[in-house]
């Protein structure tokens, strides 16, 4: 993610290159990228202007994101039917019973986000008391 300060800095360097105050090599060194990337950046800057250094998917949903309706359905099923299930078992049961295929890590994040699972692990062993002895 490029912040506004970096955007302005990049734009200034590209402007300096276009006004022949810098060479491509100098611009690349100042931007800390390769000459090939600098060429691409300059081409994009000529086409789109000052907004070119901003990433194309900025403020848009990821192409790899999971449908919100599916997420809501899974969370609803978790609250009603699979209340005390952990993420791995929940993933397996959803796939087997509901034909919903969701990764257990994704489920873990969703459960934590909605406070349906604590992040604390259960202790399954307890230390035994020390045996009393004389001396």
Structural account:
The chain is mainly alpha-helical. Among the domains are: 4-51; 68-113. The chain contains 6 helices and no strands. It has helices at residues 4-18, 24-31, 35-48, 68-80, 87-98, 104-113. The protein is elongated. The termini are far apart.
Short description:
The protein is mostly helical and 135 residues long. 53% of the residues lie in helices and 0% in strands. Among the domains are: 4-51; 68-113.
Which structural traits does this protein have?
single chain, about 140 residues, mainly alpha, about 55% helix, about 0% strand, elongated
Strand segment count: 0
Structural class category: mainly alpha
Residue windows where pLDDT falls under 50 for at least 5 positions: none
Tally the helices.
6
Q: What spatial form do the alpha-carbon principal axes imply?
A: elongated
SSE layout and pairing:
Layout (H helix, E strand, L loop, with lengths): L3 H15 L5 H8 L3 H14 L19 H13 L6 H12 L5 H10 L22
Helix pairs in contact: 1-2, 2-3, 5-6
């Amino acid at each position: 993610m490029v912040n506004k300060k970096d955007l302005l800095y990049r734009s200034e360097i590209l402007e300096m290159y276009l006004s022949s105050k810098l060479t491509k090599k100098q611009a690349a060194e100042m931007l800390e990228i390769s000459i090939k990337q600098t060429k691409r950046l300059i081409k994009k800057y000529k086409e789109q202007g000052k907004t070119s250094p901003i990433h194309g998917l900025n403020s848009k949903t990821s192409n790899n994101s999971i449908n919100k309706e599916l997420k809501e359905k899974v969370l609803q099923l978790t609250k009603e039917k699979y209340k005390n299930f952990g993420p791995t078992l929940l993933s397996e049961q959803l796939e087997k019973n509901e034909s919903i295929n969701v990764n257990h890590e994704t489920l873990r994040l969703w459960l934590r986000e909605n406070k349906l699972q604590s992040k604390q692990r259960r202790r399954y062993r307890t230390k035994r008391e020390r045996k009393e002895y004389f001396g």
